[in-house]
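Hey everyone, long-time lurker, first post.

I ran two proteins through the pipeline my lab uses and got sequence/structure pairs for each. Pasting them in order. The first:
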Amino acid sequence: MEKYKKAVIEEHPSSSAPNVGKEYVIIHTQPRKHSSFGNLTEKTKKVHVSGHLFLWTVNLILSKCPNLESIQVVPKRMMEIKESHERSCSSRGVKIESGYYKPDLAWDVRESELPSYKLRRLFFQKLSGKQKALFNELLSFGFEEAIITARYFCLNEENFLCQRELGIEFGYLEREKSISRKVNAVIFYLDETFSTSQVSMVIARSIKRRVEKLRKAKRSKSDFRRLLGRYRISKLPKGFPISRLKIYSELLKARKDGRMDSLKLENPKWHKAIDLRFSLDSEADYPTLQEIGSIIGVSRERVRQIEHEVLKKLKITK
């Protein structure tokens, strides 16, 4: 792993940001004559507007980009879109859609071409011996950090997803560094010579502690059965990650001592979200964030936020 130590762990995403003459261009609307407008050409297919989407901005973009497909805006600006904006764009078949919270840090598919990405992917492709066993163990326990890592490096030959897209897939805000930190934590867990941030080191050490506890539970099947039997549960939901067993058992306690009932009275939507997330009242398969979001009418990101808030409220996590 020594040769990988110099790889940049949490690179500044702007290193892969679009440049002049590319199909994807970021422009700034302040001041009106900002130099970024000069990046717009006939090659431009997507434009991300950093700032307010003025009508003059739309018209200027359309005039400079005959092959434009879409205009993206910061998510909170979507509510400011007016009919006049939509009319101008629809006449050209151009979509207005939600983009990045921080467009200057936008990543495109070239993230997979960065030297650090290639080195880290090669590291996982070449895993062997104890490191391979440890990584496979994380996957078998259902550690989200390992699942995200495997998906990010396309270890099953999937199509590449940049960290922003992967974050959305797993219900994280794109402006957070959650994906990068989790991936780096897994690498550090496998090899402590890997240079990374303090945050990733803390996550890695937490993974190690959780793994040790799960190994004990796995070795003692009688203890595991006793835990389920204590709450009159015949088995865990299909696909439920063992790494979340502690949270699951704490939620069962909360249901037994009435905290879940109080939550249902106070916020039925939150109660339903957490009930579905952990399949507390059924033996249904462990659902995805997307499936839960579709049922209660929120995004994957919001389901994760609700889970975080409920677990804190029930004093299961800090």
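...and the second, right after it:
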Amino acid sequence: MFFQIKVLYRSGMEMTLEPNLIGVDGGGTACRICLIWRGQRIEARMGGANVTTDPSGAVAAITEGLHDVARQADITVSQLRDCPTYLGLAGVVGPADGVDLAAALPLSRVIVADDRLSSMRGALGHGHGAVAAVGTGSFLGRLSDDGARFVGGWGLILGDQASGAWLGRGLLSASLDACDGLRRTTVLTDDVLKEFDGPAGLVAFARTASPAEFAAWAPRVIAAAQAEDPTALGLMGAGAAYLETALTTLDWNPAERLCLIGGVGPHFKPYLSRAVAAACVAPQGSALDGALMLAAEMAVAPP
């Protein structure tokens, strides 16, 4: 994706610019950074960058990425200082969350925001529609003539319904319920209890588990649901019901586009109602593309 920007000067003269840009997509499990430098696109991938659960780790991951892309471009990190930079990061719930992080980076033109807008812009481009972004965490968003609206994105402790972390935590909780006889045991719950050598091991794991560690169990839930395991089907069904409720809250209707994005999002399509599933389309780009689009808008914004 190239980022040529047309600038109209007061004199009426129009020029096309190819600015140097930096975009960052920081998820709870992995962080990606992209540098557009003299027309060349350079990318790097690092560890997770969740500002809420690990702010120092987020700074370290992004700094590592800056050094990586600078090395690939055969320049120094100091040469990146004035690049318009947009960071869409998991765990940012307000403007104050990004202040310390921005100050810790060797950059002067930085916007730190949550990852919702960059994910939605990447998926929808400049058009309207909605996204259900479901990875380690989750949120839904809709872009219309009235602007951008969002639901969710508050983290696993109080939200992130349908997310990979939510599925993993739900599986472990269901396994304990099955052990207590509160629900029917299934192949999946039996396997979980065996792998933890019983409920004590499961509880010990959950006591300190991060969202990413809970989310590591999501592929097991997805695969078991495809094999019609009742526990897994219940979790996927509950997650799909939440997504549809959130879409209704956003005033989305099936005449609009819907992009299921993130590592888990597309797996919910079989569990959505027919009308909602029929509205699903492939995203135009990634959250990283969205961050670059927003960085390009920074390049021509008034100082």
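Reply from user beta_strand_b:
Welcome! Quick read of the second one: The domain at 5-121+286-300 is CATH 3.30.420.40 (Nucleotidyltransferase; domain 5). The chain has a mean pLDDT of 88.
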